[in-house]
Write a sequence for this structure.
């Protein structure tokens, strides 16, 4: 998340969880569900521009501008 320059709330939107969940993962008080691991791996492979573009799409309800 830090490498991508994203806040916990923004990263949470990409993953589909709450910001508090991200903080819990980072503190080690909880772990991501196995079903989320592929999503986390795909986000980890992104660059900053791609992550911000995907966040924009997610924030607008999944619809890209034409």
């Amino acid at each position: 998340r830090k490498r991508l320059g994203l806040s916990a709330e923004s990263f949470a939107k990409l993953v589909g969880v709450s910001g508090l969940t991200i903080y819990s993962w980072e503190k080690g008080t909880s772990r991501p569900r196995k079903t989320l691991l592929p999503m986390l791996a795909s986000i980890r492979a992104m660059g900053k521009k791609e992550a911000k573009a995907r966040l924009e799409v997610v924030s607008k309800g999944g619809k890209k501008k034409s």
Observations:
- The helical segments are 8-15, 19-27, 37-44, 48-59.
- Residues 1 and 36 are 15 Å apart (CA to CA).
- The longest helix spans residues 48-59.
